Amino acid sequence: MTAPERRPPAGARPALEGLCAALLDLPPHEARVLANEVTAMSRRFPSHARLALSAGYATTDVLSLLHTGSRLHRLDAVQREALFDRLCAGTATADLVDALKVPVLMTHGSLSAGPEMIARLTEPPARPDAPLDVTLSSSWPSRSLADVVVIGSGAGGAMAARVLARAGLAVVVIEEGRRFMVEEFRNGTPLDRFGDLYRDAGATVALGRPPVIMPIGRGVGGTTLVNSGTCYRTPDDVLLRWRDQHGVDAADPVRFAPLLDDVEATLQVAPVPDEVMGENGRVALRGAAALGWSSHPLARNAPGCGGMCQCAIGCPRNAKFGVHLNALPDACAAGAVILSEARVECVLHGAGRATGVRVRRPDGSVLEILAPRVVVAAGATETPTLLRRSALGRHPHLGRNLAVHPAVSTAGWFDERINSTRGVLQSAGIDELHRSDGILIEATATPPGMGSMVLPGAGRRLAEQLGRIDHLATLGAMIADAPSGRVVGARRAIVRYDLAKADADRLVRAITAMGRVLFAAGATAVVTGIRGHETVHSEAELVDAATHARHERLHVAAFHPTGTARMGADAQCHPVDAAGRLRGVRGVWVADASVLPTCPEVNPQMTIMAMAQAIAQGIAG
C-alpha cells in the first residue's frame, strides 16, 4: 500500500485493525493504515450499513475472545490464521467473514492499484466533457415555471428530455446527484470514485435469502456513468410478450425497431475491437469455441475505448458514451436545463392533475418548479418511493414485480498472465444458453483493485492469491428472473427480493457453465463461490460442487432492477398505462426501467432509452 496514512477524527477501532491484519496477513502499521481508510470510506454509507459493519467488527472480536482468550488485534499471525480457518469453516461465521471482507478488500485494492491506474493514463481523453446547461440547486430560485419537469437524468430521463425539448417544450431535468467531469475520473482513487458515483456509496442491498448487492449510479447521467457499456437490442420474443400479454402496443417489434435504431445511433454502438478486447475476453471466446458454443465480442457504446477497465467507476477517457455525452447535451442544445444536487421531495398535484414538484436542496431548504407535466424517471428503486411520498402510490402493484437480473461470477486460474484489468471491463458474450435457459454469460472483469472479493479464505492464503491475481480470468452470468421482489417505503427505498427456487437453480447451472468455459480455455482451477467447494480442479469436481450449492448461500449481485411501476393495458395489474401515464392522476408519466413489464433478458440500457423515447413522443404529440 502506498497511500499516506489518513487520520480520521475518531481513529479506526482496534477490532477493525485486527480484522485487517487477519484478512490480509498484514503487519500492525499497514493494518492501522488500512483500518483508518476503511473507517473513512464507511462514513459514506447509510447509518444502517455503518451500524452493521460496527456490529460485525465487534462480533469478530467477541469470537476471538471466545476461541483464543484474546482480542483479535492482540493475536499473532499464526493465531489469527488458525482463528480464521475456524471461522471460514463455519456456517454463519463464514458468511460474516465474507461480508466484512468486502469493504476491507475494496479499500486495500484501491490503495494498491490507484497509483498504477493514474500512471497508465498516458493518452488524452477520447473526447472533451460535453456542453451541459447545469445549475446547482443552491443557485436555483425558490419558485420557477416549466412546461415539463423530468425527474432523473439517467437513460430514461435523458431520452425523454431530448424528445420533449426538441418538441419545443421548456424542460427542466432534476438530478439528485452532481455533475462529474473527466478529470475527476483521471485523478481520483478507485474507492473515492466508487463512493461518489453510487447511491449510498454502493451499499444498496436487497434484503432476502440470499441478500443481493445492487449498486445504483447517482449523478448527471445516472447509471450510464457506471454501467459496463454493453448494448443489446431488446429480443423480439420479449417485445412480443410485452405487446401480447401486457398490451403495450409500442413494444410491437416493427414499431420498436426504429426506436432501437435511433438509440444505437445516439450511443454509437459497435462491437468491441480486438485491440482493446483484453485477455479476459479472449479466454471467454477461446473456451466457448472449444465447447462449440455461440459467442461474440459484445456491442458497446464506447467509441475510442482504450481498454482501461474502469467503466464501473467513471471512464477516465470519456470513451464510454453515456447519456451525459449525447442525449443530455442534445436536450440542452434544444433548450433543456439540468438542476443538479436536488432531491425531489414530492410531485405536486391538485384536482386530479400534476402541478409541479417540490425539491429539497442539500442545505435543507426547498424550492418549487410549477409545471403541468411531470415525467418520473428516478429508477426502479426510487420511482415507487417518490410516488408514495407524493400521495400517488395507491395502486396495489406499485413497487411490486421487481426483477433484478440476478448475477453470479466465476473465475479461473491460468498458468499464463491474464491481466484482466487491461482490456474492456465487459468484453465478450456467450449466448449458447440464453434462449434455452435464460442464462447470458459475459466476460466481466472489475476495475483495478476491486476484483478480489471473489477470492476465498483469509490470511496467508488470501494474500498469496492476491499476489498472483493477474493470472485470474473472470466471467459473469445473468439470468432472466421471475419478478419476485418489491420496493417498500416512502422516505427511503427498502428493497426486498427473494430469489425464486427455479432462478436459483439456473444460477447454479450458470456457475457450472462458466466453469466449463474456463476449463475448456485452459484454466488449472476454478473459483466457484460455492461454500465448501470454493476452488475446484476438474469438471468432475465442478459438477460435484454444484450439487452441494445452497441457494441461500450464493453470492448474488444485481445491476438491472426493473418492473416496479410496470406499464400495460390492465388497470388492475399495471400502475402505468400502455402509454406511460401514471394511473389515478393526469399529467404524470413514468419513463424509466420501472415501466418494463418483465426482465428484458439482456443488458437494458437500449431498451430503457427506446421505451422512454416512445413515451415522450406520446407526451409531445
Question: What is this entry, summarized?
Answer:
The protein has 621 residues and is an alpha/beta fold.
Number of spatially distinct domains: 3
Please give the CATH architecture of the largest domain: 3-Layer(bba) Sandwich
Strand content is: 15-25%
**Which regions contain 5 or more consecutive residues with pLDDT less than 50?**
1-12
What is the total tally of β strands? 24
| Major sheet characteristics | 7 strands, antiparallel
Structural class: alpha/beta
The N- and C-terminal alpha carbons lie at a distance of: 58 Å
Average pLDDT rating: 94
Q: Which strand order spans the largest sheet, edge to edge or round the barrel?
A: 8-16-17-18-15-21-22
Features:
six-stranded parallel β-sheet; Cholesterol Oxidase, domain 2; 18 helices; seven-stranded antiparallel β-sheet; 621 residues; 37% helix; disordered N terminus
Describe this structure in words.
With 621 residues, the protein is α/β, with parallel strands linked by helices. It has three domains: 14-120, no CATH class; 134-229 and 232-268 and 307-401 and 560-620, FAD/NAD(P)-binding domain, CATH 3.50.50.60; 274-299 and 407-480 and 500-553, Cholesterol Oxidase, domain 2. It is built from 18 helices and 24 strands. A seven-stranded antiparallel β-sheet has the order 8-16-17-18-15-21-22. A hairpin with a 7-residue loop joins strand 21 (525-527) and strand 22 (535-536). Helix 4 crosses helix 5 and helix 6 (155-166) runs parallel beside helix 12. The longest helix is centred in the first third of the chain and has 29 residues, at 92-120.
